[in-house]
Design a protein that fits this description.
By secondary structure, the chain is mainly beta. The protein has 1 helix and 11 strands. Helices cover about 10% and strands about 35% of the residues. The longest helix has 23 residues. It is elongated and about 100 Å long.
Length: about 190
């Protein structure tokens, strides 16, 4: 074959390849396609000779394929209305708190007095006294500087001692009258209602 004929065949091959590749890139499904076209001609003696080789790759895309779909009707969210509940009505009867107890525990140690209930009910009041300190103590109940009731000396580790006294409404002082314990802070206030 002549060179002129081979060049014409190559141009014809390239044109066909371009058309094939253009057809592939226009595919609707958006898939990437690879085309390879090899043109041959038969030479002398029936041998095939490669005239041209064309390899074209359409540009790759990384975007997902979007298929058109029918538009869905717009959705509407119903409005949510909130109403606050009215405040509860005031109670029709006055509430009364529980009456204070008539008994309380009292603990003594260096150097303080602690009453389990700082408010007790008037009348016969029972005080259960424990010496949990290291020194001897006692407990004196006084009002306006006058002693109303007093325990004997309580030694460390003695069982709980009970002191019962008739107390009218008012404010009382609980303290240890031994040595200078009162001045060291061993006192408390008891309110009787």
């Amino acid at each position: 074959m002549s060179r002129r004929w081979t060049a014409g065949l190559a141009a014809l091959c390239l044109g066909a390849t371009g058309a094939a590749v253009n057809d592939a890139t226009g595919a609707a499904d958006g898939a990437t396609r690879h085309r390879r076209v090899v043109c041959h001609h038969l030479g002398h003696g029936g041998h095939r000779h490669k005239v041209c080789t064309t390899r074209r790759h359409p540009p790759k895309t990384h975007e997902p394929t979007i298929t058109p779909s029918s538009p869905s009707p717009p959705t509407t969210t119903p409005a949510i209305t909130t109403t606050s509940a009215p405040p509860p009505p005031p109670p029709t009867t006055p509430t009364t708190s529980a009456a204070p107890p008539r008994r309380t525990a009292v603990e003594e140690y260096e150097y303080s007095v602690v009453s389990g209930h700082p408010i007790v009910a008037a009348g016969s009041v029972e005080l259960n006294i424990s010496n949990i300190g290291q020194d001897d103590h006692n407990l004196t109940i006084s009002q306006n500087g006058v002693a109303v009731a007093q325990t004997p000396i309580l030694h460390p580790g003695d069982p709980t001692t009970t002191l019962t006294a008739e107390l009218a409404p008012g404010t009382y002082r609980l303290y240890c009258s031994l040595a200078d314990h009162d001045h060291l802070g061993m006192h408390a206030t008891l309110v009787v209602e």
